[in-house]
Amino acid sequence: MTRASERLVIVGASLAGLRAAEAARASGFSGEIVLIGEEKETPYDRPFLSKEFLEEGEAPEPVRIASTEAIAEQGIRMMLGERATALDAGNRTVVTDQGEHRYDSAVIATGSGPIRLPAAEGFPVSSLCAR
Question: What CA–CA distance (Å, rounded) separates 74 from 25?
Fold first, then answer.
């Protein structure tokens, strides 16, 4: 069981970040949970691409995973539109473009983006994926 004074900071207010917060609550974490995300919208799931999308060119609407109210009811504080810029493990602090957040435990649940390789210029691909 956790102390109510403990703080869990999760960097990445995406599906993975929200699920980490929910799992902490479900496992008995009773302290403060802060979910930090650069995007200004609540977590959503991106639908898979389909032939229809590729042929018609209209992106399907993202599916909202939970409302702001539902997230708050779980005792999760959302810090949306706040970009994490550094992690100071020695001082147990996440630094953002809007300030600092002290933590007792931290989860890094950020996504990734494609890397443009200069050597791939001229090839008929917009990005490469390595696994």
Answer: 8
Structural element, H or E, at residue 51: helix 51-56
Could you tell me the pLDDT band of residue 105, with boundaries at 50, 70 and 90?
Answer: very high
Model-level pTM?
A: 0.75
Phi, psi of 82 (to 5 degrees): -120, 115
The answer on pLDDT for 87 being more than 70 is yes
Q: Tell me 15's DSSP state.
A: H
Within 8 A by CB and 6+ apart from 130, the residues are none
Q: Which helix (H) or strand (E) holds 102?
A: strand 99-102
**What is the CB neighbour count within 10 angstroms for residue 81?**
15
Is the pLDDT reported for residue 72 higher than 80? Answer: yes
Tokens of 106: 């931290």
